[in-house]
Amino acid sequence: MAAPDFVVVGHVTLDTIAGAVRPGGAALYAAITAHRLGLTVGVLTSHGADFPVDVFPPRIEVITVEAAQTTAFEHRDADGVRSLRLTEAARPLGVADVPPDWAETPIVLLAPIFNEVDPHVVTAFSDAAIGAAAQGWLRGLGPDGVVKPVTWAPPPFLVASLQALFVSREDVGQDVAGAYEMFQRVPIGVLTAGRDGALLFVNGERYEVRPRPARELDDTGAGDVFAAAFLVESDRHGNAWEAAALAACAASLAVEGEAVNGIPEPAALDAALEVYRAID
To answer: Which of 33, 44, 63, 246 has the fewest CB atoms within 10 Å, measured from its CB?
Structure first.
């Protein structure tokens, strides 16, 4: 069986937001983004029987490491201050869980949400353009399971394998300097900043990625949409600046819908990108 065009590794989740439970996780958002951009997609994840796998489009291949429970988060917003609480965790994901016929996959995104992806997973892929959305390696637990930013030093073998590293301003907390230092060690680094756009680092040089104005409804998963769209476009055309422009438009369109429903189809993305470029 042929390897997918795009593989994402990470947990899917059940997220409680404003009292309602819905499926989420970086792997879900990234996979659907790549699928809508026309790629064949594989997902390596772990979850319990309560996760609604049919949220994935039928053509996405989902490999599940079975677990007693699905990773679950409670999203809280008190007086404009947002917090995240981890309540359950599925099983970790390692090299042995990667199907052998995925070794030739050309694009891979490691998308941990809470330290579940062993960085050695990169060794399962022979010649892929590998990106890492590192939020899950930048998370620790405070009192009562509340997620807090922690300092993370990527292992040298992982850095040597990465084409791109993605983190958000929320992920790094006060350690922006630490993120900048990491970006000096990879060909491409991106610090996403929501409605403020992003910073793109190409071989250590810093560039601003201006935002596309959006009517924000739900910003969940926007960074994951950005990372997946960036990797797909970069692989197609080899231009980091064009990839960043497309990714900025994809993420901004995603926040205009609820949950995965906002992830854009190609026609909507092309139209937004045309307007975005015209303003430049």
So the answer is: 63
Domain of residue 246 covers 6-279
Helix (H, G, I), strand (E, B) or coil at 41: strand
- The predicted model scores a pTM of 0.95
Q: How many domains does the chain contain in total? A: 1
Please report, for the domain that includes residue 197, its CATH number. 3.40.1190.20
Task: Give CA–CA dist 179/85, Å, rounded.
Answer: 24
Cα–Cα distance for residue pair 24/270, rounded to 1 Å: 25
Task: Give which of 195, 230, 194, 190 is closest to 206, Cα–Cα.
Answer: 190
Pairing mode, if any, of strands 61-66 and 139-141? Answer: unpaired
Number of H helices, E strands in the chain: 7, 15
pLDDT in tens, 19-51: 899 999 999 999 999 999 999 999 999 999 999
Q: Is residue 1 part of a domain?
A: no
Range 222-258 burial, b when 16+ CB lie within 10 A, else e = bbbbbbbbbbbbbbeeeebebbbbbbbbbbbbbbbee
